[in-house]
């Protein structure tokens, strides 16, 4: 799409319907197609945007992990990445800005059989939703968080985010960003996530692999995916197109599995440390709750798996 | 209608306060999930739920704030549970976005607000009824909710059940508007046997995946639901959406959806209207009141009658949708409405609108922190008939 996407809910009718169907990236024979709401294509994402690439990995990971798709629920907040929920042919919830995690918390606690995947942007998860994500990690709630980090607010037109590197220009830091950014893996590590990894949209195979890992792992798992936003971030910072971003990711990425998360902070044009940084065991929220209540209440404790009403 | 699950029903005669009774009502109604954030004077409700629900079969979680609590309940509902949250003043303000989200996504759920003095931190431990307009209009955009207002612990129990039933029937967030006095007053509460408690079941579709459209309304304008994990692969969004639940950013889609969300409630307004009256027939003046103020007002009404005034008493139980038609009919037969409330004049505006100039409307405001002195209400009544 040309120009910023803009929040359709804020900027009026979006030009989605005007794009000819040929613009759809998924060829019919694509194995990923079964995961997509093809009746909603074409999608709203700009050419060269990295979000679609991550969705490809997501679909392949679901296939590879042989997950029962009826058991998967995708929860998104608001943003370009937030639109993922609307494009996957799965039970999916497009909630409010920043609140995908608490919605997912209710969903998971009421039906622990679900594989709950939160798929959202860096601004959504770490600015407005920052409080929720650290608490979900602290609780070790069994949800899988995929954070697409494009260093800006895409949907609203490229404003500064808590991830914007110092020196980057955004529409609300026209003279350059001077606020220090979050180091997301370090934050998630400190908050208690049992799995923390970072990949870029260049690393599709590794990303797919990481997603398979977290679908199989119990507890709060977090993957940061660095992706290009050619329309806003790349352009404003003269970083070229989506392809140039791929070249940058290829050249500057250093795989360092197990790297201390304090050492993986990102800068405007420096190295991108990628890999699996944290993979540990901690009792999960539901287990803790059940064992505590069973110990205290004995026979009086009524354990119900799924809180479904009549 | 099916009846309540006996597991959750504490049948018997109790002596409990309104907060505890509301919690028991919620459990009896089938609520098995609550998310909250502590705030006076509502906290007792979640404290009781946290203590009780593991023995009934359910989950309580104390979230990190009210934004979280108010959307965690939506998540639980879409997983299949009946769910509610509980708060007061500042917490209610934080929940506004998710009242709109629940209205837009037609998520049946209950918000309990034990009102305290405001604005801001105001009077944390003292009563008010100053969130009545916020309950109706607090979230952005056009939408409808239902709001109920109990005036005793017994009614906290009974009406909490009704709140859940209405939420399910209309797929709408229901505001349960208590106040600090009703929340903290202790009285006799009779909890009937489970088989005498009727429960409105989840409107689950009978259609198979493929045929089912998540937001296709039935004849009553309310669509049937499904839950995550059942194989429907459905989508729910707070964006304007079509019958399939897909975002649809057109004027036509907006018109269709928003008008339906409104009409499903307004069309049922007569059936939803619920109020109690005393001596309204042949009255010159009618005192319109709700919540704790209704009990103070009744005393004023008795005093006025002792002085020979023909005065009636009308207590709103369903506050929203406002019973406009019923009050308009009444306005034709009386001289004036007197409206005492623990705010500087909120529901009086609705009474005035309903009266449409056919009867005078007198506000008896109170800034909150206590209840009216019956004399204040009596004076207003006497003033009108002078
Ligand atoms: C409460 C609220 N505040 C602000 C917005 C406007 N808004 C929509 S998306 C967004 C930021 C999204 O950024 P990010 O999460 O990084 O996702 P991206 O679009 O970059 O994928 C904002 C501020 C909103 N929808 N709701
Ligand atoms: S993130 Fe950037 S490139 Fe991607 S859709 Fe949004 S504005 Fe376009």
Structure description:
The complex is a heterodimer of chains A (310) and B (386). Chain A has 310 residues and is α/β, with parallel strands linked by helices. Chain A has a single domain (34-300), classed as Thiamin diphosphate (ThDP)-binding fold, Pyr/PP domains (Rossmann fold). Chain A is built from eleven helices and ten strands. Chain A has an eight-stranded mixed beta sheet, with helices on both faces. Chain B has 386 residues and is of the alpha/beta class. Chain B folds into two domains: 6-196, Rossmann fold, CATH 3.40.50; 276-385, Rossmann fold (3-Layer(aba) Sandwich), CATH 3.40.50. Helix content of chain B is 37%, strand content 22%. In chain B, strand 12 (285-289), helix 10 and strand 13 form a beta-alpha-beta unit. In chain B, helix 1 (18-28) packs across helix 2 and helix 11 (324-331) crosses helix 12 (347-355). Classes of the chains: A alpha/beta (310), B alpha/beta (386). The interface between A and B is large, with 55 and 57 residues. The complex binds thiamine diphosphate and iron/sulfur cluster (SF4).
Total domains of chain A, how many?
Answer: 1
Overall structural class of chain B, as computed from helix and strand content, comes to alpha/beta
Largest sheet of chain A: 8 strands, mixed
Report the major sheet of chain B. 8 strands, mixed
Main CATH class of chain A = Alpha Beta
- Subunit organisation of the chains: heterodimer
* Shape descriptor of chain B: globular
- Span between N and C termini of chain A? 46 Å
Give the full name of the CATH homologous superfamily of chain A.
Thiamin diphosphate (ThDP)-binding fold, Pyr/PP domains
Number of β-strand runs of chain A? 10
CATH architecture descriptor text of the largest domain in chain B? 3-Layer(aba) Sandwich
